[in-house]
Amino acid sequence: MSDASDAQDHLKRGLVWFGSATVAMQLIDLAAGLMLLVYLDRAEMGLAALAWSVAVILESVNGLGVDAALIQAPGVSRVGLSSLFWLSLGVAAVGVALAALLAPFIAAFFHEPQLVPMVVVSSLKLVFVAAALVPLHLLLRELKFKESGAVQAIATLLAALTKIALAASGAGAWAPVLANVARGLYLVLALLVLAPWRPALVFSWAETRGLLGFGLRVTLSRIVSQFTRNADFMVVGRVLGLEALGLYRVAFDIAMAPMEAFANLVQRVAFPVFARVAREPARLTAAFAAMGRYVVLLVGPVAAFFSFASAPLLSAVMGGKWSAAAPMLTLLAWAALLRTLAQLFPQLYNAAGRSGLGLAESVLSGSVLGAGFVVAATTWGARLGPMSVAWAWLLCYPPLLAVLLVLAREVAGIGILAWLRQLMPPALALLAPAAAMAVVAGAVVAMSPGVQVALLATVGLAVYALSLRLVLGMRLADLRPRAA
Predict the structure, then answer these.
(1) CA angle 88, 90, 91 (to 5 degrees)
(2) Global pTM?
């Protein structure tokens, strides 16, 4: 087997196992999210979004990047693994204490006193995530994507059921907050059953010190990245208010959730595979190009569907209660595709041992997107509302991707034009289904929303299958990687 095909084979096995689990998790999350819309109003959705944003930023500090260091390191002893486990728990305990101290200030910044207990409770997930960190990433290091995917799918299913049950019982904004914490607990419990590794009661600073240098740079990158990923929620909540944030969050979740699932798949599958071939430039370039093609082939049709089906899809939910989010959903669907492509680059930098570039990418993305959100909300927010922030997403990513490609050339000699040529055929295969859905969307406006959604999905899938055959000589079945 050639070097290039070997790297792509690892990607395919990861995509089929972890990808299947990710699709399952996404469907579960989407169903739970839609159910949540039945019970929560816009203000409650906005409050939950703020609590969630603070929680995931805190979570980015967990373990000080030892998970990434563990995957990237050539070898780690049993004592080193146990030391990393106890270090992660210690960092989590500090994080919980820090959250309790900062909660009143965070609540005051957003003028929402209800955030104080929510931030404190949300931080408890840090302990569970810390306990899961080493065993979960050992599975990824060994490319055991089947087991890793199963663990996370189980945790997601149980958390979704918890969320629905809490929302139905009248928990309001607390429902997604408590369910998020519960997911950490479910993850630990699933790992106890499916992962064989257990920590020993030992700790060696010497074993962890070498990994922390790399891990700390990754952690800084993650902190900045999470600020970037949640800056839009914070800006909308602060500038435009909770009701605007609730509406924006609905559009964001529907548009970004499928892409977010694939972005997580990119991070968990691409990084260990990139790390394995990082010292062989030809194989690294081939693996990077392969993942870029998978992103366009798998995420592109989803973006097109949500773009053209946004109005009937939201009209079908709660009789149009959330229909005002449809224009934002249309924009965010395409922004989500660009965002998913951007997720490839930090994985490439970190796998190649260039965590400094990963940090630079996070700072650059955070600065550009954050500034874009603030300018859009303060300048056009009064006229466009949260739609202004959706425009900022779409307009900021093209120049960001250009800069990320320049940095990628330093790491693996990947040229901008060469990478774009790799993406051009799958992008061309998307033109026909996008055009077909545009025609259908205009022709079926008089039909019921459910029928419109079904027709758009059916026509889009059929034309995409034909386009794949004519443009790339592929069948839909070829998009499903082999498990072997």
Answers:
(1) 65
(2) 0.75
Which of the residue ranges 22-31, 86-95, 449-458 would you say has the lowest mean pLDDT? 22-31
Task: Pinpoint the alpha helices (H) of 266-354.
Answer: 271-276, 281-315, 326-342, 344-351
Position 178 in a domain: yes
Residue 169 lies in a domain: yes
Contacts 24+ apart (CB under 8 A), 156-163: 156/24, 156/25, 156/28, 156/29, 156/183, 157/24, 157/25, 157/28, 158/182, 158/183, 158/186, 159/183, 159/186, 160/28, 160/29, 160/31, 160/32, 161/32, 163/32, 163/35, 163/36
> What token pair was written down for 158?
């149980």
Residue 484 domain-assigned (yes or no) = no
Structure tokens at 226: 């999470």
Indicate the number of domains in the chain. Answer: 1
92-110 pLDDT, tens digit per residue, is: 898 899 889 999 999 998 8
Query: Quick one: tokens of 175?
Result: 């429902």
Of the candidates 426, 427, 429, 423, which has an alpha carbon nearest to the alpha carbon of residue 463? 429
For the chain, what percent of residues have pLDDT higher than 70?
82
Task: Give the separation between CA 234 and CA 110, rounded to whole angstroms.
Answer: 8
Cβ–Cβ under 8 Å, residues 351 and 271: yes
Distance from C-alpha of 267 to C-alpha of 272, rounded to nearest angstrom: 9
Alpha-carbon span 391 to 389, nearest angstrom: 5
- Using the predicted structure, report yes or no on whether residue 279 has a pLDDT greater than 70: yes
Q: For 264-277, how does the pLDDT look when each residue is reduced to its tens digit (9 = 90+)?
A: 666 666 777 777 77
Question: What are the distances in angstroms from CA 31 to CA 245, 258, 327, 467?
Answer: 21, 12, 21, 30
> Strand runs (DSSP E) across 14-143, as ranges?
none
Cα 312–chain centre separation: 25
12: pLDDT strictly greater than 60: no
The Cα 166–Cα 169 span in angstroms is 5
Euclidean distance between CA atoms 2 and 10, whole angstroms:
12
The pLDDT of residue 4 is 47
CA distance 389 to 444: 30
Owning domain of residue 94: 3-479
Amino acid at 471: V
The answer to whether position 254 is within a domain reads yes
